[in-house]
Amino acid sequence: MSTVWSYPPQPLSNAAGPAVTAAALTAGTPVPPPVIPGGTLDYGAKLFLEADLEMTSTSATPTLTLGFYIGSVGGAIGSATLIAGTTAQALSASAAAWPITMRYKGTMRSLSPTAGQIQGTGELLYGTSLTAWGTSPFPSTAAARTVSTLNTQQNNQLDVGITLSATTGSPSITCTGFYAEVKG
C-alpha cells in the first residue's frame, strides 16, 4: 500500500489551530486545513486521520464532543459531513492543558458525487490528568461507522470539529496538530 496523498504539506506549519471556547460546533483545524484533491478517494483507499488536542477548564459543567468532518473547500463546518464523532466527554474542573488524541482509519466502499461511502472506526485517548488518559472507540454505534453521503469527486476539506456544551468555567480546546493520509 502506498501513500497517495498526505497532510501537512511542505513547508510545515508551526501553528496550532485557534482555541475553541464557544458552545457550538467549531472548526479547530490548524491553518491551512487539509484538502484532499477530487478523485483521490478511490475504491478500497484507506483514509487515516489523527489530531492532537489539549483541554483546559475550571468547571466540570461543560462536556466536549469531537469529530472529523469532510466537506467542500472553504465551507462552514456545520454543512460538512461528520465522518466519525465521539460521545460527549466530561471536562475536569482542574484540566490545564490535558492531552487528547483522536485517531481514525476508514476504507472507501463506494464512490459518488453524492453518495460515496466510507466505513471506519477511531480511537479516542482522553486526558484524565496531565500525564494519563483513558481510551475509548468512536463512533459509539455500528451504524455510525458507515457514512454514505460523501462527494468523492470534489476537492474535500478535512476539519477537526469541536463542540462544547457550555462555556461555564471558561473551557478552551486547542488542536495542536492534525495529520491526514490517503493510502491506496
Strand content: over 45%
Query: How many structural domains?
Result: 1
Structural class of the secondary elements?
Answer: mainly beta
Radius of gyration from the CA trace? Answer: 16 Å
Record field, number of beta strands: 13
Helix content range of the residues, please?
A: under 10%
Low-confidence runs: none
Give the H and E element order: EEEEEEEEEEEEE
Which descriptor suits the 3D outline?
globular
What is the residue-averaged pLDDT?
94
Question: What is the rounded distance between the termini?
Answer: 5 Å
Number of helices: 0
Please summarize the sheet with the most strands.
Answer: 7 strands, antiparallel
Overall description:
This protein is mostly beta strands and about 180 residues long. The chain has one domain. Helix content is about 0%, strand content about 50%. The chain has no helices and 13 strands. Strands 1, 4, 8, 9, 10, 11 and 13 form a seven-stranded antiparallel β-sheet that branches. Strands 2, 3, 5, 6, 7 and 12 form a six-stranded antiparallel β-sheet that branches. It is globular and about 45 Å long.
